[in-house]
């Protein structure tokens, strides 16, 4: 090997400036990928990208150098001890270090350190959250339920049996010679699954009132089945003490056998029938489904270490919240009790089982702007004594994600972004996982700070 051979540099362009990086620090040059935005990120951080199965932060080379960002078309993936992406206008060629007109050589590590001075490695907040949730579970045994309505009756499935919630698909393949229970087959993601009418399955009377059905995708053994319901009321953690099993003497017919317990809410004024997923299907329905349902593509098996997340949409972005930290998911109340002299992101307070909790517009907190959509939802999060309700634009999914697809988030550059402690790969989407503890701590900090600022501004 010739140790006197000149070092090689990759040259690239940022606006009208030609720069160079040592080739041995460059992992790959590629087109700009789709980016997932990170709320409260430093100016130089454009977002996160999927690089061959690894989620990496993408930084604007122009912003790191204090230049106005242009329209970058190339991504240089560099290895500085961890993988990072530099967004540049053009990456042209390799040149020798002693070229006649060498480009300005930059130190990538120093450049990132100057642009993101607060970048540090910290203990992941989900470790603290997990410990607190485990302590809560010991003291307060609860069950997470997905509650839905059929007519004026409410039913539920344990959240562990629900994969996701979706609107009724526009295209459904009908099944010949089927009864009212079988709606047909429909595509969800990369699989085709059967759709059943839960109203017919439970032998409930027909309704003349038009509805916009929702599909609850339940996992029954190794199969997935879509259950059509009139409306999804939300997700609720309920104390096991308010769940009463159905007496054996009442389990006479098919419909009764599918109900395993009754949940008493609102001091017994609201009763929810809890279904058992394993007993939902009759043998004849199962046979019909197997004859007319396409085989799902083989996918990696979900391990026992899988986690379940409530996936929410805020603006154009999606985020995940561990289902164990979600006490309740409900529609945004039409009226909230307003608090005087509070910051704009505090919409008011609401009462949850006798407790007053602040309602925070998370779209304003994450810089997505206000949203007045009718489908907005409230996510009630509790860890220990901390509790708050966060308004989101929509619930897009209840997702069970294999632990191998959930990884620590890259260090994103400042204390504000540490509310996102992990990232998950959900198909082609990158989902930022919210640390419930950090979210509540940040909400409490912002609320107190906002109140102080508002109070100071209101003073004569």
Identify the strand order in the major beta sheet. 17-10-11-20-19-18
Measured as a percent range, the helix fraction is: 10-25%
**For the record, what CATH class of the largest domain applies?**
Mainly Beta
Q: Which assembly state applies to the chains in this document? A: single chain
Which spans have pLDDT < 50 for at least 5 consecutive residues?
A: 121-125, 294-303
Number of strands: 31
Task: Calculate Rg over CA atoms.
Answer: 26 Å
CATH topology type of the largest domain = OB fold (Dihydrolipoamide Acetyltransferase, E2P)
Number of helices: 8
- The total tally of domains equals 3
Main beta sheet: strand number and arrangement? Answer: 6 strands, mixed
Strand content: 35-45%
Give the termini distance in whole angstroms. 78 Å
- Mean pLDDT, to the nearest integer, reads 79
Shape: globular
| Class derived from helix and strand content | alpha+beta
CATH superfamily of the largest domain, please?
CheA-289, Domain 4
Q: What's the CATH architecture of the largest domain? A: Beta Barrel
